[in-house]
Amino acid sequence: MKVTVENKKGLNKDVKVFIDKKTMSSYMDEKYEEVKNNVNLKGFRPGKVPREILKRQFGKAIFGEVLDKVLKDTTTKALEDNKIKPAGQPKIDLKTFGEDKDLEYVISVTELPIIDTKPLSNIKFNEYTVKIDPKETDKRINEIAKSQKNYKDLDENAKAVEGNLVVFDYKATVDGKEFKGSEGKNTQLELGKDLFIKGFDKQLIGVKKNDEKKSRSKTT
User: Fold this and answer.
1) Separation CA 106–CA 17 (nearest Å)
2) For the purposes of burial, counting CB atoms within 10 Å of the CB of 28, is it exposed (0-12), middle (13-18) or buried (19 or more)?
3) Structure pTM?
4) Rounded-to-integer distance, Cα 72 and Cα 2, Å
5) Residue 217 pLDDT
6) In the chain, what are the domains?
7) What is the rounded distance in angstroms from the CA atom of residue 74 to the CA atom of residue 6?
């Protein structure tokens, strides 16, 4: 195999590949031998079919398989030997081919660019130190604490009112049928926020600890 690389300075390269007909014939001989040992033709014993008969019946298919294999193998080798890493799928342009002929083709390929990266040890940067006053930290913590609501357990007989946080388990159905995600445990809901199903939290106003309640909701 003879390989010539053009456009060496650019990323777009044409790689010319030439394989003489003697080498191609050896590939064909191997394939014909393989086919002869596996094909069954009427009037011939296994492995005894003459090459002329095989060529007449399967010549085009055999050459197609051989050509495909040679192109794949030699294209890969030509690029690897010349240290060319394709950025995309190479394009192959057949110039000369055929049984009992030389094979000549051109690989048109765009090569991945070589990026020169500098070691991190050579990069200089400015170092900054930020000082935080402990008083500012305490002040911010207090502000966050004040913005958070604190809840405490009410008496067992106390009835839920708007603004209370209710913790409940639920089981929902649609037209009497359960669905994925239809059950929930320890769900928290602040009454009055209307953040669950619209109008649902109003139906919990007045419930007491350990109450069971059936609720109906409309969806659109």
Assistant:
1) 6
2) buried
3) 0.49
4) 15
5) 65
6) 2-110 (3.30.70.1050), 149-204 (no CATH)
7) 17
